[in-house]
Structure formats: structure tokens, C-alpha cells
Amino acid sequence: MRITFIKPTIGRREHSLYTDEGRMEPLMLAVLAGLTPPDIDVRLYDDRMETIPLDEPTDLAAITVETYTARRAYEIASDFRARGVPVILGGIHPTLFPEEAARHADSLLLGDAETIWAQAVHDLSRKNLQKRYTGPPGRAQLCGSLPRRDLFQGKGYLPVTLMQFSRGCRFACTFCSVSEYFGRKHYIRRIDQVLEEIAAQKRRFLFFVDDNIASDRVALKDLCRELIPLKLHWVSQASLDVTQDPELMKLMQESGNAGNVMGFESITAESLRESRKAPNLRGFSRYEKEVETLRDHGMQTWAAFTLGHDGDTRDSIRATLDFALEGRFAFSAFNILMPYPNTPLYRRLAAEGRLLYDGCWWLHPAYRFNSAAFVPRRMTPEELTEECHRARTVYSSLPALLKRFSDVKTHLRSLWTAATYWRYNSIFKREVVKKHGMRFGLR
Ligand code: SF4
């Protein structure tokens, strides 16, 4: 028996194919492959850079689906089903919107797949695949099983090992699908199993792809203490309130934390309150202390902004860009606020009649990557799209790159931090141009 795991791409550029240069390992597919009985042949194909061999015999196509890749995932599903191959879809998008995903699949894996995968494989072997398998959230990598990282060989992924320490987050930001998926809960793996997984791979640079690794500060401190003797570099995603805990900041630095993706979201308290961004609001004074604390600990921060809140204007987006330049962050993401299905933001905008693209931007043939999918209060959707693209373009221009680089506390701290800065900025600069206005799906 053979199972084919698929990671779909987002789509294509207007006149050419798109290859994601900054692609990272699709960790979850390797986790499922690791949980598959060894007598089953498994294949992994990554639609971001290789052609999926639809005519290669297989007994199941298992496709991971995010909102951004849903349109392409359904195209691939339809190709396999047309050849008589059953399709199972899983991931955050099918879990939040199972009615839609069910129209494109023979079976769905809802919730976290680890506890239900063995049953699905067993049913498949008896040609009795069920319509739905529902797993509880947060039961990660059971029994210490290891991801099949051998499946990543030769696929040109960035040289950083992805793994997870925790899933979920205790906060409830209104635009966040993670908060909806995990019901504001945070689940932690056993540290000894994380350490075994680190020992089983060869790299010294890790990316903990946790939704918010700092959701439980006590647990993160424990992890940091174990990481210190390993002398690794690691990055993750963390809420900004870590900066209020000096002991944690020190431990993160000592354990090799090189920086984190951090949701600054907005530079106004009004928008932070509107989106219930609680970790940013305590003692809010436009992040002066937070940015200094991050720099004092040598962290190369990836500042993420969501733009298009009800109070936002063209001017406030320009002020956000100035703030990011002044902060000399290693990277910044000027994201348009996106109404992900079944989030509180989506429900509010739907109730106010402000959703564009029939409320289904991820499947709509006219939607283009990085465009506003709703009507902002104080701009047109086109103005929001334009301002965010301008912010990305200015931020990754050569003068801005040089200005941001001139920080002895972070990017100029060592050869490694300088190389990281230039290597990833050059990839992201090209990606900004390539992805803007891209179509979803290949057809
Ligand atoms: S802090 Fe981050 S992960 Fe947590 S709910 Fe807010 S946006 Fe989501």
C-alpha cells in the first residue's frame, strides 16, 4: 500500500509559474509519515517546487490545507479523484470550515491528526475510509514518534529544522484562526521528547513553529534551561509580553534564541483593543520599552503588523512603516488584516456587510494575493492594498536595508547575525515582488 502526502502551493503569477524560494519543510506531513506503519510506502510531493506525478500509483492522497492554499488543494484533490484515488484533507482550514472541504474530498482529518491517523490508515487498508475523523487538539507527536525528515531530502528547503514544543495560545485576538482552532488553550509537549527530536537531527539552527511559544512562560523557561547546554540557535513565534519578564528574556538569550516572529499588529491602542490583542496592551506606550528590551538581548525580531483596522488610514499605515524602520527590525510583515473563516473578525465583517469576494476570498477567481478582502472603514480596499504594498517595497529597498542593518546590538553583533540578516532579507525582498497580485490555484 502507498500513501502520497502533498503540500500544495498558493498559486501562480499572472504570466509564469511561481516557485517559493523561502519554502520551509512541511513538518506536519513528515509527522504523519512518521506515524504511518513502516510496511506502507510513503511519498511526499511539494507543489511549491515540483510537479506532482498524478499518474504514479497510490492508494491515498493526503493533502494538508491552509486557507491560502485551499483553492490549489481542491484542484489537486480533483485531479486525484478523477483518477480514482481517494483523497483525505486535513489542517486548520478544513477544521474551521469542514462543510466546504467535504465537497472536495472523500474523507477529512479534523483537529490534530495524531490520534486519528492510525485509524484512518487501518480503514483505508480495508477500503472502508470514513467521511470524517475528528482528533482532539493539542495531542502532538504521540509516543515520541519522530517526523520522517528523510522525506525532505533534495527538495531545497531552507537550512533550518522545524519542530514544535507547543500548540495553541491562551490569548483571543479576534483575527486569529489559531485562537479559534485551539479554543484559547495551549498544549505543551514533553521536554524529553523534544530533546530526543533535537538529538535525532543534525542542524544547529531550529525553528519552533509554535503558534505562541511564550503562551506559558514557566514551560518556556524550562525548555530554555534544557537548551542552554546544547549551544544551538533557535527562533520561534512569541507574544510581546515576554519582554515584561526579565528572567525569561535572559534565559531565551542564553539558550540561543536569535529572535522571534512577534505580532506588533498596530501602533495604536485603539486598534489593539479592537482586535483584543491583550499581550500588547499592558502599559502600552508605542512599544518603546519592548523594542529596547528585544535589542538589549540581541534578538533579531520579525515584526508582524496587521493593517486595515477600523481606525487605520493611509497615514497610519505610513506611520507604522516609519515605526518599523526606526525599530530596525530584521524583518517586518505588513499584512493586510484578513478575515479568516469562522474567526470573530470574519463574523463581525460579515454581519456588517463588509466582506468582499462573496465572503470567500480564498476560492474566488478574482481575488489576488495581498489584496484587501473587505471594505475598511477609512480607506477604500484598493488604498489599503496599495499602502501595504508600498510599505513592503520601501521596507525592503536598499536604503532601508542599510539603515536597519546599522544596529550593533542585533544585526552587527556577530558574523552569524549579519549573514542571517542579508541572506533572509534578500529572499524576502524577491518574494515581495513575486507574490504580489498572484492568482490562487493554477487553473
Ligand atoms: S497572541 Fe498570536 S497566536 Fe495568540 S491569539 Fe493572538 S495572534 Fe493568535
Could you describe the 3D structure shown?
By secondary structure, this protein is an alpha/beta fold. It has a domain at 2-134: Rossmann fold (3-Layer(aba) Sandwich), CATH 3.40.50. It is built from 17 helices and 16 strands. The chain has helices at 27-34, 70-82, 92-96, 98-102, 117-125, 177-182, 191-199, 217-227, 246-254, 269-274, 278-281, 288-296, 314-327, 344-351, 381-395, 398-405, 415-435, and strands at 2-7, 11-12, 41-46, 60-64, 87-90, 107-110, 132-134, 161-163, 166-168, 186-188, 205-208, 233-237, 257-265, 302-307, 331-336, 439-440. A 6-stranded parallel beta sheet has the order 3-1-4-5-6-7, sandwiched between helices. A 6-stranded parallel beta sheet has the order 8-11-12-13-14-15. β11 (205-208), α8 (217-227) and β12 form a beta-alpha-beta unit. α8 runs parallel beside α9 (246-254) and α13 runs parallel beside α15. The longest helix is centred in the last third of the chain and has 21 residues, at 415-435. It is globular. It starts with a strand and ends with a strand. The structure holds iron/sulfur cluster.
